[in-house]
Amino acid sequence: MDGTLRDSDLKARVLDATNIVELVGRTVALKRRGKEFVGLCPFHQEKTPSFSVNPAKQLFYCQGCKVGGNAFDFVMKRDRLEFKDALRQLAQLAGIPVAEIHRDGQKPGEMQVLRDAQSAACMFFEKQLASPAGQAARDYLASRGFTADSIQRFRIGLALDSWDGLLNALSRKFAPPQLALAGLVKPRESGSGFYDAFRNRVMFPIRDAEGRIIAFGGRVMPGSDDKAKYLNSPETALFEKGRCAFGIDLAREKILASRLAAVVEGYTDVVMAHQFGCTNVVSTLGTALTPRHMALLGRFADKVVLLFDPDSAGDTAVDRAVELFLTQDKVEIAVAGLPDGLDPDEFLLKRGAAVFDEVLAGATDALTYKWRQLVRKLSRSSGDLTGQQKAVDEYLALLGAARQSGFVDPIRWGAALQRVSRLTEIPASELQRRFKSRPAGKTRSSQAAGPDRPTTSVPPPAPPVSGRDRAERWILAGLLRLPGEWIRVQLEIQPEDFAEGPRRVLADTYWRHQRDEGEPVLSHFLDLLDDPAVKAMAAQLAEEAERLDDPELWLNSGLQYLLSERRRALPEKEVSQLRGSTSESDVGSLQRIFESSKIDDGRRLPFRYVG
User: Do residue 480 and residue 569 come from a single domain?
Assistant: First the structure.
């Protein structure tokens, strides 16, 4: 975008057509609180909601991580998009023709190219499944119980047994290196040319929570010699396996309503569950649950239930559930076992949705499930003391290792030990003694940040807040809330009267907008602020100014402070001249200067300092 009036009009159209509460509500579970909506921030880990959305101003702001802005800012931050791609996405949601976004010949950003390539690949795979060559794949899906509606809803397709079918089909629009970046083709080992990444597989598009295709999972066709039954796309700029859940876009509505998410292992399990009406089921793409999975699911659910065959549940997956049970306290983690060695899709076909829901309702917490699993594994009978001792030793070793894996809240740890005491019949005091020799685990401030572990950042100490800081913030907050007051304010002060830094940048942009285009619409005005620090400060000032009963009073107080400070800032040489004078009039002038400098330092500021 080149900043022309046409582009400004387009951005304004998109913002005006976007309901920010509905937009954010697709990602965050919002609850009305007075004039605002509040929820847990999607951009940092928290237990108490500090994230708010103001429908009147069409803005969002988080008191915890200080992130705020309009609909564009939310989408850019959530999806890691460039502005033009966020504009394109919101325009599509609003029904504004996408052609208008790039009508100046400007190419979409890299992320959008990857998204477009994934969408084109999905349509190609769907076409192949529907073709005569896809008959065997259609027969296979029918044998698994998939209906035509499920195939269409999940956009299931087929990669033919060809080395370059997809490559040839998409190369007219996308360069092979772009398709490689999207994980759709691979470079040949010879270094010359590319070939399809998926061949002879039923294709399941993997979509993010907004329903956009970010990767694929392929299930090998029956009779193939390929030993890899399932194959996922490689990780790309769009796709990180440890933070995605297959089916989340279709499951989120039911999860939000029930506050419960069920996690299964395979794509077919998810499709069959949704086909039976159990639409709060997702899959973690064959990987053990990670903190990033929990962060994703925690946006919609209060409880996550892992579904396993009780006789073959992987130790790694259950151990990971125990670790997450201890180290995160945003979402409860439970485990449910399916009887008779059945997979979820087989269970649904034989038992139905009602019994499936009963299994979910009867899920036990991860600590209890793991203990029972160890007892079954190591203890031959109820009187097998040796087996029970082995189970206790292995169980406590697991808890100790889990405690070392990340921060464990002391209160949660104490409650967990009480539960463990009831399970193992070991007094809590003895458990405390056993764990006393072990380090207590990491603190939040020292917890190592890793690719799978969200961190809770500790902000640096705020700099000292002066009276001038307060005054300038009062003025800017007042003007953002009451833009009509600018006419009289600009007669008294100009942007140059603000201290150098973010506040002067904000003032300068605000003054120019008022002079050139009139009173700003706040959500539109934020788009003019290129510096993230300035934008964040403006969003916070606007959000907090909304809570003031009399913003004009604070505006006037700040204005008077700056005017008083200007009056006392006489040239030093003038003061020196007056000091050297003995005349009665000059002495009186000097006294008046000193008296006017005794001004309030503005300590009553109701805002937090942000610079």
Answer: yes
Q: How far apart are the first and last CA of the chain?
A: 30
| C-alpha span between 208 and 84 (Å, rounded) | 20
Residue 135 shares a structural domain with residue 202: yes
User: From CA 22, how far away is CA 37, in angstroms rounded?
Assistant: 11
Q: What is the pLDDT of residue 580?
A: 55
Do 86 and 151 fall into the same domain?
A: no
Question: Is residue 70 domain-shared with residue 41, that is, in the same domain?
Answer: yes
Q: What is the predicted pLDDT for the residue at 599?
A: 44
**Residue of 86, 136, 137 lying closest to 115 (CA atoms):** 86
Q: Which of 520, 513, 501 is nearest to 609 (CA)?
A: 501
Q: Distances in Å between the alpha carbon of 536 and those of 19, 149, 440, 502, 600?
A: 20, 45, 37, 10, 28
Residue 411, pLDDT score: 77
**Strand duo 332-337 + 303-308: pairing:** parallel
- The answer to whether residues 69 and 18 touch, using CB atoms and an 8 Å cutoff, is no
Pick from 441, 509, 515, 449: which is nearest to 480 by CA? Answer: 509
Burial 218-246, CB ≥16 within 10 A → b, else e = bbbbeeeeeeeebbbbeebebbebbbbbb
Residues in Cβ contact with 21 at an 8 Å cutoff, skipping those fewer than 6 apart: 30, 37, 53, 55
Q: How far apart are CA 265 and CA 133, in angstroms?
A: 29
- One-letter amino acid at 180 equals A
Supply the range of the domain harboring residue 197.
109-239
Contact (Cβ atoms closer than 8 angstroms) between residue 148 and residue 129: no
Closest-CA residue to 389 (of 426, 353, 352, 360)? 426
Under DSSP, the state recorded for 450 is: B
The pLDDT of residue 100 is: 47
Contact 201, 230 (CB under 8 A): no
Q: What pLDDT is attached to residue 312?
A: 52
Buried-exposed string 500-538: b where 16+ CB fall within 10 A, e elsewhere: eebbbbbbebbbebbeeeeebbbbbbbbbbeeeebbbbb
Q: Buried b / exposed e across 375-387, counting CB within 10 Å, b at 16+?
A: beebbeeeeeeeb
């201290």: which residue's tokens? 499
pLDDT at site 376? 80
pLDDT value, residue 608: 43
Residue with tokens 């505006």: 555
User: Which stretches of the chain score pLDDT less than 50?
Assistant: 1-6, 100, 102-106, 311, 313, 440-463, 573, 596-611
DSSP 335: E
Contact 577, 442 (CB under 8 A): no
Pair 27, 33: CB distance under 8 Å: no
In terms of domains, do 491 and 587 share one?
yes
Structure tokens at 28: 């965050």
What would the DSSP string read from start to end of 491-529? TT--GGGSPTTHHHHHHHHHHHHHHHH-SPPHHHHGGG-
Instruction: Assign residue 485 the CATH number of its domain.
Output: 1.10.860.10
Helix (H) or strand (E) holding 283: strand 281-283
pLDDT of residue 119: 95
Of residues 163, 169, 219, 223, the one with CA closest to residue 196:
163
